[in-house]
Amino acid sequence: MRGESSVARILLTGATGFLGGAVLHQGLSRRDGTEWVCLVRCASAEQGRQRIAARLSRFTDPFTAQRLARAVEVVPGDFTRADLDADPRLDSVTHVLHLAADTSWWGEERVSRTNHDGTLALARRARTMPRLVRFLHVSTAMICGTEAPPLVEEAAYPSPQARHLVAYTVSKAAAETSLAGSFADLPIVVARPSIVVGHSTLGSAPSSSILWVIRAADRLRLVPCDPASAVDIVPVDWVADSLLGLLRKPLLAHNLYHVSAGEGARARWDDLMRAFAAADPEGGTRDDFTRFDLVADRALLRRRFSEAFGLDGALKQAMLRAVRAYYAFCSLDLTFSNARLLAEGFAPPPAFADYLKVCLENAPEIAEQFADDLEMFVAPEPTPVLPLTASA
Ligand SMILES: NC(=O)c1ccc[n+]([C@@H]2O[C@H](COP(=O)([O-])OP(=O)(O)OC[C@H]3O[C@@H](n4cnc5c(N)ncnc54)[C@H](OP(=O)(O)O)[C@@H]3O)[C@@H](O)[C@H]2O)c1
């Protein structure tokens, strides 16, 4: 019978990434006897362990990071070829937490190969794990596309009608569709985080991914939408806790959950402006924020960007493209309902405006922080940026 043993043996993909590091740090810190098996791209188990330790050291001191990394079983490998991986250490897994993904926005064929085809390869390997009780697949709330209602409910997506801004969300939607269609025999639960920014107590130390964009919007004093509209942002430590809860809770009411701020903790732009003003060491106000049109006012954005950051060199050019792309997401005014998650008894998320100050306290220069997301923008911006469909 599946899941007879009480000792959990968790296969984690993506341990060297932002969310994976947070999950592993929290999971290992619990010292509850859980066995952690990490599938990591590396030349040797020792190199993989060092890559994991480097990621963990963003959450704790280097000594503790090394100690925690030593408690992990490292399986060198690529999850996109997991179905060909006969390593017997994978056979006895009880839970899979699949976080690994290609998170770059524009590498169409590559992201589809990794996020769709690769996820199915891992699911095929999971079929040969007789003790498996849960396969938690981490998708993204943004699979809803550009025309979703202001309050997004889980069950409405993935939808073949959804229009996407980037190939990344197309690939994540396709993976969900194929998992549901072809792997009904697996105990799959899907978690869809919204926008993960910072850590509620460590601020931007674990990663400055996306935080730099919100800071850039503040520096530019430009908002691409009604200031009363919202962005759904959550901290990585709360996401990690929620994912561990979804992975380990024996019975869940649903097989699909947003891991999101929801109506209770979403960030309205005007709240963010107030939070930036409150955190400003120079006591500056934010009365000079201007609403602008992302398409019609391209020249205004370019001019402000050039004044604020300069436009010299490839990095700044890439940063301007990335700001435009993120603004497109931020102007969608989407809140992802977390009612299902909260009904499971998990803690509600803190609001971004409440932990923004912590994130700013240890944040280096904005352009320096952009380096954390640079890989997401390596492919050239497609021209024109037309909405994509899940079937594209
Ligand atoms: N961050 C967010 O705001 C956010 C929001 C919603 C959903 N999500 C989802 O959450 C998950 C984790 O995101 P993240 O922000 O933590 O991403 P990340 O920092 O870019 O990390 C990606 C991880 O995936 C691993 N990976 C990629 N391809 C692999 C392969 N072929 N074989 C083995 N490992 C591979 C990477 O390993 P290497 O170190 O070897 O490259 C890395 O550990 C993703 O599924 C993402 O779609 C994230």
Residue fraction in strands: 5-15%
Shape: globular
What is the CA-CA span between the terminal residues?
Answer: 41 Å
Number of domains: 2
**Which superfamily, in CATH terms, is the homologous superfamily of the largest domain?**
NAD(P)-binding Rossmann-like Domain
Say what the CATH topology of the largest domain is. Rossmann fold
Number of helices: 14
Question: How would you characterize this protein structure?
Answer:
- It comes from Methylobacterium currus.
- One of its GO terms (molecular function) is alcohol-forming very long-chain fatty acyl-CoA reductase activity.
- Residues 12-242 form the Thioester reductase (TE) domain.
- By secondary structure, this protein is an alpha/beta fold.
- It is 40% helix and 14% strand.
- The chain is built from 14 helices and 17 strands.
- The chain has helices at 18-29, 45-56, 62-70, 108-126, 167-182, 211-220, 236-248, 262-265, 269-279, 298-309, 313-330, 339-343, 352-361, 366-370; strands at residues 9-13, 35-40, 72-76, 95-98, 134-138, 151-152, 163-164, 188-193, 195-196, 222-223, 230-231, 233-234, 256-259, 267-268, 290-291, 335-336, 388-389.
- The strands form 6 sheets. Strands 3-2-1-4-5-8-13 form a 7-stranded parallel sheet, sandwiched between helices.
- Strand 4 (95-98), helix 4 (108-126) and strand 5 form a beta-alpha-beta unit.
- Helix 1 packs across helix 7 (236-248), helix 2 crosses helix 3 (62-70) and helix 4 packs parallel to helix 5.
- The structure holds NADP nicotinamide-adenine-dinucleotide phosphate.
- Residues 13-14, 16-20, 39, 41, 78-80, 99-103, 114, 118, 138, 140, 172, 193, 195-196, 209 line the site of NADP nicotinamide-adenine-dinucleotide phosphate.
